[in-house]
Write a structure and sequence with these properties.
Strand order of the largest sheet: 7-6-5-4-3-2-1-8
Bound molecules: 1,3-dihydroxyacetonephosphate
Number of helices: 12
Number of strands: 8
Shape: globular
Helix content: 40-55%
CATH superfamily: Aldolase class I
CATH class: Alpha Beta
Order of helices and strands: EHEHEHEHHEHHHEHHEHEH
CATH topology: TIM Barrel
Radius of gyration: 17 Å
Distance between the termini: 18 Å
């Protein structure tokens, strides 16, 4: 079933005291019936947060990444098996910062998605084009290729576990959002692409989130577009008041 999702990606921000302070404010918030809130803090806070969130409805925890292998000599990495063992339900895979800074290819992300699915995690699969691709008006073919190469061979059960987050790189942390029309154009193209790769029913049931300078002031307009099912929020998720407003931005 297609869900409205307000997801906060905390990236590598906040020491333990300020992370706890933010988390306590968020978990004390009433989440609207039609919204799922997902919080993706740094790894070090996951275990504590997932335990605290276990009794709260529609309030779920995500990891920001996982490795493609189950176990091994991979210093500094965390696997999907480990995340599952502490009951983490979601994992962000393929954020553009990881694609750029850690050279994560579409092929590598395909392996990570499969590994996460093998352990029953729900991947939040990120895609999105850099500015030069947008300027050349090749953004739709760029993003659909990312999706085909990383998700195209999943079976129907597997693809049904995926949330897609469209995050145009030029809108991340820049204060420049895609317009609601630009977001809708891409989200519709992504949904049509999923429909052509799989089925219309799978496409209609998939949550597709927009990410890139979502704020309390623009969330409602973006989320009201028919193919936008919520947001993956960076900077504005680091402030309780602004993220709570975003959680309440669905009609
Ligand atoms: P900003 O909301 O800070 O632009 O970040 C978006 C993002 O990268 C979420 O994953």
């Amino acid at each position: 079933m297609r869900k409205n999702i307000a997801a906060g990606n905390w990236k590598m921000f906040k020491d333990a005291a300020s992370a706890n302070e933010l988390f306590e404010k968020l978990i004390a918030t009433e989440i609207p019936e039609n919204v799922i809130t997902v919080i993706a803090p740094p790894f070090i806070y996951l275990k504590e947060f997932v335990q605290k969130a276990s009794s709260k409805d529609r309030f779920l925890i995500a990891a920001q990444n996982c490795h493609h292998a189950t176990e091994g000599a991979y210093t500094g990495e965390v696997s999907a098996m480990m995340l599952k063992s502490i009951n983490i339900p979601y994992v962000i895979i393929g954020h553009s910062e990881r694609r750029e800074q850690h050279a994560e290819s579409n092929e590598m992300l395909k392996m990570k998605v499969l590994e996460a699915l093998n352990y029953g995690l729900n991947p939040i699969f990120c895609c999105g084009e850099p500015l030069e691709i947008r300027k050349r008006e090749e953004h739709i073919s760029f993003v659909t290729k990312q999706i085909t190469e990383s998700l195209g061979t999943l079976n129907h059960d597997q693809i049904s576990q995926i949330v897609i987050a469209y995050e145009p790189i030029w809108a991340i942390g820049t204060g420049e959002t895609a317009s609601p029309e630009q977001a809708q154009e891409m989200h519709e193209a992504i949904r049509n692409h999923i429909s052509s790769l799989f089925t219309e029913e799978i496409a209609n049931n998939m949550s597709i989130l927009y990410g890139g300078s979502v704020k309390a002031s623009n969330a409602n307009e973006i989320f009201s577009k028919p193919d936008v099912d919520g947001g993956l929020v960076g900077g504005a998720a680091l402030d309780a008041d602004s993220f709570i407003k975003i959680i309440n931005s669905f009609r």
